[in-house]
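The following record pairs a protein chain with its ligand, calcium ion.
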Amino acid sequence: MMTVTLRAAAADINPIVDNPLIEIPAGAFVFGRDDGPENERPARVLEGRPFAINRTEISNRQYGRFINATGHRPAFYANHPLLGLDERPVVGVSWGDADAFCRHYGLVLPSEQQYERAARGTKGAVFPWGEARPDETRANSGADACCSGDARDGYPMTAPVVSFADGASSEGVLNLAGNVWEWTRDLYAPYEGGHAAVSAGPYRVLRGGAWNSDRNHLTTTYRLAYDPEFRFSANGGFRCVRSAP
Ligand SMILES: [Ca+2]
Ligand SMILES: [Ca+2]
């Protein structure tokens, strides 16, 4: 009986068995920046609540288990010979697909604030690993000029979700910069005062850059606004969080 109880408790702590939730403690952190694109300004200090975030992007294997359990539609690239590999991040999912996956496991998509705190730590680092420019050991990125893949880091398209350990965040979360863009739960809007750069909407925000991003798009603050219904992106995926109750 005790064994069963413990197993149930463990499943509750980590509902996606092969993708642990990494605890991010409460506390002050820097959000936004003053020297980047207009829609990333201003930098300010926020008081963060504790949360936990998947160590890796959601993989095709993990998404496949969700499909089997629920009958939800498969990812658009599920049968692609490279993008569909079990250990690669799922791509070809709408915002609603990603939201449904997280909710199935009692989780939600990260807010922009949660994503940014997980990615840059408390002091406002430009990249998950610190201030050093991205290189082929830190992140799966694309060519220097937008927007094609580049294999100098070993991966012309997506890399396995467990990869680029040298680019991990201070809490050990992987690929928060690069590999695939990640849906957040937030609607796109200027932070304070400014005018929306995207007139259509409502759009949702993706973060982190992808395998075909040039390195300027891999910062922890870059905000990509996108049509939430679009499910044909070969470079867009997600991960989930558990927020404090
Ligand atoms: Ca690459
Ligand atoms: Ca990513």
